[in-house]
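Inverse folding, one chain.
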């Protein structure tokens, strides 16, 4: 994640040890720290910081233009990939969906329509909804399959269903 400062901990500690070790003491520790720094940079930090090598980040960045401010997205399970997608799309109204609540869906659909957007239903919420008769009926009345998003890359798949 290029915008994430989390990766700093992978190179700052070895870098500090290299600098401190070069000033005094045995030379084994700074060499070991330098090797650890190079290993992390070459095999973890640089590859993972590229959006093309990180499917959730790649998807999230591509969706920024598709999901304008305030558009509601309903989810059931906040899985780790959804953490990344939501982090890089803070303009979206992320709505947790713990039970099949048709009035809640109708209110969010009305809010999305007032923005000229569909209500997006993330795959976990879609699967949860289709497990009940009321949910299946609501989806059959409102789904717009032509606008669905189905993104697959490597072993990752992200699905968002458009409701009108």
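Residues assigned per position:
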């Amino acid at each position: 994640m290029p915008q994430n400062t989390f990766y700093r901990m992978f190179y700052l500690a070895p870098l500090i040890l290299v600098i401190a070790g070069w000033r005094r003491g045995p030379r084994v520790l700074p060499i070991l720290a330098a090797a650890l720094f190079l290993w992390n940079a070459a095999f973890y930090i640089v590859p993972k910081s590229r959006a093309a090598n990180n499917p959730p980040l790649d998807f999230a960045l591509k969706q920024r233009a598709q999901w304008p401010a305030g558009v509601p997205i309903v989810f059931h399970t906040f899985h780790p990939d959804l953490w990344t997608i939501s982090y890089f799309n803070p303009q979206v109204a992320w709505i947790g969906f713990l039970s099949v609540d048709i009035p809640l869906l109708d209110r969010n659909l009305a809010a999305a329509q007032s923005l000229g957007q569909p209500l997006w239903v993330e795959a976990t919420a879609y699967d949860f909804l289709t497990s009940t008769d009321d949910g299946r009926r609501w989806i059959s009345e409102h789904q717009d399959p032509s606008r669905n998003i189905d993104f697959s890359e490597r072993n990752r798949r992200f699905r968002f269903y458009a409701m009108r």
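Strands lie at 72-75, 93-96, 119-122, 149-153, 156-163. The first helix runs from residue 8 to 23.
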